[in-house]
């Protein structure tokens, strides 16, 4: 299982490789002298914008992970993000633009910007590897680095955050139960106290889906056990929390259920 540090390093390495490919390609089409090269140049411009956005996203995630108060206001002050943005601003100077002869269109060739941003990514990579940048697991929910909530729950548990791990697992199950119920035409809302409209509980939806034969009774019971563990993490005292070993089993149960029936 990948640690937080490994996940960040993997994504940064991918961005560095993509940036180096863009840099090498733009060198070959610096002066588009044909329709074919002109088309390639416009594609490169689009790829650069996508790469720059992805780079900004991972840097924001890193800033959220290393700041003690991970608000977007504080993230704006993060020097990695400032350097990235400054590089993009300077990329619009004349040295980065080449005009096609006898054409009103100006093509954007951000070679120097790509080179500068690769340096920023490599610097961040080196600082993460050396421990200068400390990836604080307490901030991982805000950073949203994981592809799935189950993966997030696993890493939270590994770092000792039993309550948040259990809640995250329950949220993953609740979300998918609602989706499946909607697809089956099952009402996911009901009238609550004082006539208010509220979501049906995950247990209610689980029971309704069992009634539609979406899965067997054993699966229904496993889901209930997982939901109960998540409920305890959200509402019970420390003494009544599931043990880390028990919660690990519930998270893996939830993972299997999600893969087999709910995703």
- The percentage helix is 55-70%
CATH class categorisation of the largest domain: Mainly Alpha
Largest sheet: 2 strands, antiparallel
Cα-based radius of gyration, to the nearest Å: 24 Å
**Class inferred from helices and paired strands:** mainly alpha
CATH topology of the largest domain: Four Helix Bundle (Hemerythrin (Met), subunit A)
Strand content: under 5%
Treating each run of at least 4 consecutive H or I residues as one helix, how many helices? 11
Number of strands: 4
| Average residue-wise pLDDT | 77
CATH architecture of the largest domain: Up-down Bundle
The unreliable regions are 68-72
Query: What's the shape?
Result: elongated
**Biggest sheet, strands in spatial order?**
1-2
The separation of the N and C termini measures 21 Å
Question: Can you give me a brief rundown of this structure?
Answer:
The protein is mainly alpha-helical and 263 residues long. It is 67% helix and 5% strand.
Please provide a written account of the structure.
The protein has 263 residues and is mainly α. It is 67% helix and 5% strand. The protein contains eleven helices and four strands. The chain has a two-stranded antiparallel ribbon.
